[in-house]
Amino acid sequence: MVMTNAVENTMYSLSENYIYTYEAFNEYFNHLSKNGKLSFMMHSNMDLLKIVNTGIEVLLDKGIKPKEVTDYFVIINGVSIEHKNMHGNKVAMPLVII
Q1: Average pLDDT over residues 77-93
Q2: With left for phi above 0 and alpha for psi between -120 and 50, is residue 60 left, alpha or beta?
Q3: CA distances from 56 to 25, 33, 49 (A)
Q4: Spatial contact of 28 and 38, defined as CB atoms under 8 Å apart
């Protein structure tokens, strides 16, 4: 987790960072061993979408077949069984392992 939920009182608090870019993912994957895994814990569904979409794009460019790309992802909802009624079907603090 490289981000916080707190908004800082600086001019950078609303700026986009580069951790979810195509270039960053390409570097992350290049540093993994053959069976290496990359994991992200997100604060929101928007971050989840960024990570999954960028991960898919990079994996496809690395030669993974489109019908096999989902075999490379695990998405875990951060809602515990005790709190599922509070959150309904919403995803909260998702974890993605690629």
Answers
A1: 64
A2: alpha
A3: 10, 18, 11
A4: yes
Helix (H, G, I), strand (E, B) or coil at 21: coil
DSSP code string of 36-94 = ---EEE-SSHHHHHHHHHHHHHHHHHTT--GGGGGGG-EEE----GGGHHHHTT---S-
Interval 47-73: pLDDT, tens: 888 999 999 999 999 999 999 999 999
Token pair 């096999």 is found at 68
What per-residue confidence (pLDDT) applies to 46?
82
Neighbours of 63 (CB within 10 A): 6
What are residue 95's phi and psi, to 5 degrees? -115, 130
Token pair in block for residue 31? 């540093």
Q: What is the pLDDT of residues 12-44, one digit of tens each?
A: 555 557 888 999 999 999 999 989 999 998 877
